[in-house]
Design goal:
- This protein has a 3-stranded antiparallel β-sheet. Strands 1-4 form a two-stranded antiparallel sheet.
- It is α+β, with helices and mostly antiparallel strands and 188 residues long.
- It contains 4 helices and 7 strands.
- Helix 2 crosses helix 4.
- 53% of the residues lie in helices and 20% in strands.
- The radius of gyration is 19 Å and the shape is elongated.
């Protein structure tokens, strides 16, 4: 069982890194097409605005497809090591503190291209930290599905920039769910 679990974690790690490159490909494709669009239409006009919106929709769709693939794979891992339902004696901890994790996440979220109408966005990110300390299956709850997808993508971009210590129940590492409130401020 331990060998199977180790194999699943290795495959998931490789798969997760491949998915991060899917985010990078979507970003690169968007920037390339946007640059070409701005060369074709240097001055603002309705056609340029419509084409830019279609590019944005394509980027959002690409992100959501990558996130769906990641979630499917990580749910398989979680099924092998499900989060504890009851109380734990020690919560899961990020090695540099949860505030540091929040800061990394805020810095990784890039929503400038969305032209979001509000100055700030409130959401909650929840994910599982398994008994080995792997952060898995980010889910963001907020009022805008597209913004949520980009916050989830930011989670996957930073999840390996620090270590999580798993929760403990009577001294034994256990899988648990972590929820962190977020307030993103948009630059105008």
């Amino acid at each position: 069982m331990k060998k199977l679990l180790a194999l699943v974690f290795m495959v998931s790690f490789v798969f997760s890194n491949a998915q991060i490159s899917e985010f990078e490909k979507a970003d690169s494709r968007y920037e390339r097409k946007k640059t070409a669009l701005y060369k074709k239409y240097p001055k603002p006009n309705d056609l340029k605005t419509k084409q830019e919106w279609l590019l944005t929709e394509d980027k959002i769709t690409s992100y959501k497809e990558a996130l769906d693939k990641i979630s499917t794979e990580e749910k398989k891992m979680i099924a092998l090591d499900p989060p504890t339902k009851g109380m734990v004696t020690h919560e899961a901890d990020y090695d540099k503190g949860k505030a540091s994790f929040q800061k990394l996440l805020y810095e990784a979220v890039d929503l400038a291209f969305l032209n979001y109408a509000s100055d700030s966005y409130k959401a909650t990110i929840s994910f599982v930290v398994d008994s080995k300390g792997n952060p898995l299956d980010a889910q963001v709850k907020g009022n805008n599905e597209d913004v949520n997808a980009f916050i989830e993508a930011a989670f996957y971009r930073i999840k390996d920039k620090g270590k999580w210590k798993p929760a403990e129940n009577n001294g034994k590492p256990v899988s648990s769910t972590v929820s962190i409130p977020l307030v993103l401020t948009f630059k105008k």
